[in-house]
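PROTEIN DESIGN WORKSHEET
SECTION A - STRUCTURE
LENGTH: 247
TOKENS:
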């Protein structure tokens, strides 16, 4: 009778039916520590697997489960169990999101292109402007502060000139050659997240195409994009350039 009993418990969780069987899996949902979150995430996986098992349950088990809820106490208990299951699902969702963020791989649900329509696009969205060109000593670019993992986009269509995990002080860096308005323009993106580069040398990219993620690699102490613009070989103010052209 072990298997039918387990099926009853699963039906109570998944179908919202009531069983008098205790559900120990949801007993420990009070804390949200890392270890516990992982456990709950695993529980959610088990739950999902159980769902398949539940759909295989036969009609006899279904009818036995459905008339088990008779007293107010049992209904209260069922509500508490459903609330606990919902909390567990929320924790599992948060844990999965955190696991995605901490991973060096590219999350699947990020914006894959810069939303602009112009020939020149913002290489990053939702940032705070930091050091500008030549601010506080030698600084050939602009620092655009954002969370590590924020998508970075090609500022214009072009051909990838550099794509390296270790590009000197830039850390994980990409640079792209463009021809814009008949001029040779090069844009550079520094301090990206290890393993996040989406382009390789010689590759043609479209304006706004995802090239990697914000990081803090190389000579960097905080998550940000170091962005440079060179026109016909000369450094220009990338902030002024973006403001004049990007959209
Ligand atoms: Zn910088």
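SECTION B - SEQUENCE
RESIDUE ASSIGNMENT:
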């Amino acid at each position: 009778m072990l298997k039918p009993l387990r099926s009853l418990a699963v039906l109570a969780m998944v179908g919202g039916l009531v069983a008098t069987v205790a559900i120990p899996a949801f007993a420990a949902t009070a804390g949200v520590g890392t270890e516990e979150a992982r456990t709950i995430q695993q529980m959610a996986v088990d739950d999902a697997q159980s769902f398949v098992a539940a759909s295989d349950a036969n009609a006899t088990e279904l009818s036995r489960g459905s008339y088990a809820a008779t007293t107010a106490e049992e209904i209260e208990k069922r509500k508490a169990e459903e609330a606990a299951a919902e909390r567990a699902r929320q924790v599992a969702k948060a844990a999965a999101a955190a696991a995605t963020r901490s991973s060096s791989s590219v999350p699947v649900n990020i914006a894959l292109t810069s939303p602009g329509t112009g020939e020149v696009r913002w290489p990053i969205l939702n940032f705070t402007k930091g050091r500008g060109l030549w601010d506080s000593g030698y600084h050939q670019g602009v620092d655009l502060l954002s969370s590590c993992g924020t998508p970075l986009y090609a500022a214009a269509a072009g051909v990838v000139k550099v794509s390296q995990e270790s590009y000197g002080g830039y850390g994980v860096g990409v640079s792209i050659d463009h021809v814009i308005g008949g001029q040779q323009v090069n844009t550079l993106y520094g301090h990206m997240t290890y393993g996040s580069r989406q382009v390789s040398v010689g590759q043609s990219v479209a304006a706004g195409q995802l090239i990697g993620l914000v990081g803090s690699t190389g000579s960097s102490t905080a998550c940000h994009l170091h962005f440079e613009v060179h026109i016909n070989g000369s450094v220009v103010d990338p902030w002024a350039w973006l403001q004049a052209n990007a959209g």
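SECTION C - NOTES
The chain has five helices and ten strands.
Residues 2-102 form one domain.
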